[in-house]
Amino acid sequence: MATTLTAVDLEKIQAHITAHKDVPGALLPLLHAIQDDIGYIPEDSYPLMAKGLALSVAEVHGVVTFYHHFRTHPAGRHVLQVCRAESCQAMGAEKLEAHIKSTLGIDFHQTTADGAITLEPVYCLGNCACSPAVLVDEELYGRVDSQKIDEIIQEARSSS
Amino acid sequence: MIKVYVPRDSTALSLGADRTAKAIVAEAQKRGIEIELVRNGSRGLFWLEPFVEVATDQGRVAFAPVQPKDVSGLFDADFLHAGAHPLNLGLTEELAWLKKQQRLTFARVGITDPVSLEDYLAHDGYKGLQSALKMSGADIVKTVTDSGLRGRGGAAFPTGIKWNTVLGAKGEQKYVVCNADEGDSGTYSDRMIMEDDPFVLIEGMTIAGIAVGATQGYIYLRSEYPHALKALNEAIGKAYAAGYLGDDVCGSGKAFHLEVRRAAGAYVCGEETSLLESLEGKRGLVRFKPPLPAIEGLFGKPTIVNNVISLATVPIILDKGAQYYADYGMGRSRGTLPIQLAGNIKQGGLVELAFGATLRELLYDFGGGSATGKPIRAVQVGGPLGAYLPESQFDTPMDYEAFTQIWAVLGHGGIVAFDDSVDMAKMARYAFEFCAIESCGKCTPCRIGSTRGVELMDKITSGKEHAINIQVLRDLSDTMLNGSLCALGGMTPYPVISALNHFGEDFGLKQTETAA
Q1: Which of B49, B151, B300, B445 gets the highest tally of CB atoms within 10 A of its CB?
Q2: Is residue A80 within 8 angstroms of chain B, CB to CB?
Q3: Cβ distance B24 to B35 under 8 Å?
Q4: CB of B440 within 8 A of CB of B284?
Q5: How does residue B512 score in pLDDT terms, banded at 50, 70 and 90?
Q6: pTM value?
Q7: Chain CA centroid to CA A153, Å
Q8: Residue B158 near residue B150 (C-beta atoms within 8 A)
Q9: Mean pLDDT value across residues B241-260
Q10: Chain B residues in contact with A87 (beta carbon < 8 A)
Q11: What is the mean predicted confidence (pLDDT) over B455-463?
């Protein structure tokens, strides 16, 4: 079938499938490995995973789309996750969320025009004693106010 | 060489602990002073992070909170010898906030280097496993049963009874699964154990495996916890290297293998059967029960599924005995509960106490009231599926049965405080919205009811056919409560109806109309 995948990505995906095919309950670890490596789960890889793990393409599609963590399109250079859960709401997360959206000019699940930041909602980062919290890639921030988030965004925009 | 401690816990990092650690090392170098930097876990006084400690002859002295700009002044004040400084809080062990606690599960947290096996062993680590290895499986299970330990994930099912079912189940392969999908807002005790004392969880799971004859364990860890993943994997690697995991645990001839599996951001996978589906590589759809996971669990085999805190509490029970643990607590809630103070709270952090302390003590004696200084109007206990409690219920003791009596849940011990700016109708709407986002879609009351609930709340707050819609809200909640397959749909009515009953004015009800 026609594929938009580059030869390099295809090779990486195949290597992950080979590495995972005998792992019990392999699909989630495999999806994590692919997303960690190339940044998303290309839909063109579904048939390859299905074949490698003896699943139907529908099953693979069903799993990828069930979990909020997996994305089927590339994200920006950084992923900014903003906590929307109760503890953060109690400390002004709603205002923070509005500030971030207007600063970036995007809504949740979107990426800024310069490709720097993808904005995602998250429901608890386990930093509830110091709400509100955001996570940039794997960097956690607590007691985030509008001034602090502006600095965080600035830093993310200027880094690769 | 003087030891300086700067925590590596996520919350400490989120407030700049890495920068503080770097500044201390750089300043020491500049001044030609040799120090040993230890990245310990957090003591749990999160409002004081980064919480720096210095080892002295009298004990560890705390300086907090320390930002990089404070570092040179601390050296000037000779903080390495507990010199006087505005940030000097005195001996850590003497801090009232810690002294009033009863730390059993969290005995080592904040004290040790989390990924140092030597440190773990030097602080009573693996003593529980050593005594377990001298016992029969049935005796281990009996000890856990006698301790009165109940599932700390929220359901509070007696851990020993669950283990006993797996012990008695026939199967060549059995599993121990740790539910580390801590998705409840206001909770972080699992995260702390995994980041700040990962060996205790590994030890607890090993004991569980030895007890019931399970040779493989999985920790199902939420993907939002990158630091916990690193700490666990590092600790597991060291446990394997030292023979605490593998085909021959401590030369006993018994095997136990352990692996961390990453979740993928689905709240419903904290429900045990959904978790098992996910571990099997499927969509996290909730299973019908029976069969119980203890009989037909992971890959259809007998499986212990326990929360992080339940498993991490097992080592101290095996070390000190069932009675030691059971001597703490009240009524049928034996032992201690790691309570997490969160939300709009001045002094947020981890408080481990025997069951029985009241919400008021926690909110004011430990928490110091709200962060904003306004009155605390409502608290949500037990995560997004827990009830909202008004001030009139703050004298309720932290006890499973006491909470059941007021139609609330203790859950995982998270307490989220809200000041008087909170709009409780909005919180009720959010509860439905969250349920709609996270529903696995298998049962109708949850899948459809949650969305209808959001619509209904919008009608109610806009005043449309108000009296009728309040009744529909109660009917819908009743359907979800009694008709849902799992706790997600089944407990979403808790925050909704408790908000309606206790804060009816936010729903446009007059005082006289609020009672259910």
Answers
A1: B49
A2: no
A3: yes
A4: yes
A5: low
A6: 0.97
A7: 17
A8: yes
A9: 98
A10: 185-186, 342-343, 414, 416
A11: 97
How many CB atoms sit inside 10 A of residue B465's CB?
12
Ordered DSSP codes for B200-213: HHHHHHHHHHHHHT
Q: How far is B259 from chain A (nearest CA, A)?
A: 11
Q: Which of B133, B129, B164 is nearest to B146 (CA)?
A: B164
The mean of the pLDDT values for chain B is 97
Q: Tell me what the mean pLDDT of segment A92-113 comes to.
A: 97
Residue B266 CA, distance from chain mean position = 17
Secondary structure (3-state) at A78: strand
Asked if B446 and B410 touch (Cβ cutoff 8 Å), the reply is no
Identify the band that residue A160 occupies on the pLDDT scale cut at 50, 70 and 90: confident
Residues B189/B193/B196/B198 CA torsion (nearest 10 deg): -160
CA atoms in the 13 A half-sphere facing the CB of A18: 6
The 8-class DSSP code of residue B269 comes to G
CA B352-B354-B359 angle, to 5 degrees, is 75
- CA B398 to CA B288: how far, in whole Å? 31
Place of tokens 């009515």: B493
Q: Which two tokens stand for residue B156?
A: 């509070």
* B341 touches A: beta carbon within 8 Å: yes
Query: What pLDDT is attached to residue B437?
Result: 97
DSSP B350-406: EEEEETT-BHHIIIIIIT-S-SSSSPEEEEEESSTTSPEEEGGGTT-BS-HHHHHHT
User: Is B51's Cβ below 8 Å from some Cβ in A?
Assistant: no
Q: Are B87 and B65 in contact (CB under 8 A)?
A: yes
Examine the pLDDT at B357 and tell me if it is beyond 90: yes
Rounded Cα–Cα distance for residues B330 and A67 (Å): 40
**Alpha carbon separation from B306 to B178, B273, B332, B436 (Å, rounded):** 5, 12, 19, 26
Structure tokens at B510: 């007059």
DSSP B3: E
A26 min Cα distance to partner chain B (Å): 6
| Closest to B207 in 3D by CA, of B316, B108, B101 | B316
DSSP SS3 for B454: helix
This complex has an ipTM of 0.97
Strands of B59-63's sheet, edge to edge?
B35-38, B2-5, B52-56, B59-63, B88-91
Taking a C-beta distance cutoff of 8 angstroms, is the pair B491, B438 a contact?
Answer: no
Amino acid at B5: Y
- 10 Å Cβ neighbour count for B282? 18
Residue range B334-343, pLDDT digits in tens: 999 999 999 9
Burial A98-110 (b: 16+ CB within 10 A, else e): ebbeeebebeeee
Q: Which residues of B touch A90 (CB under 8 A)?
A: 342-344, 416-419, 422
Q: Could you say which residues from 1 to 30 on chain A have a Cβ atom under 8 Å away from some Cβ of chain B? A: 24-29
Out of A29, A62, A87, name the one closest to residue B343 (CB): A87
Please answer whether residues B412 and B192 qualify as being in contact, where contact means their C-beta atoms are separated by less than 8 angstroms.
Answer: no
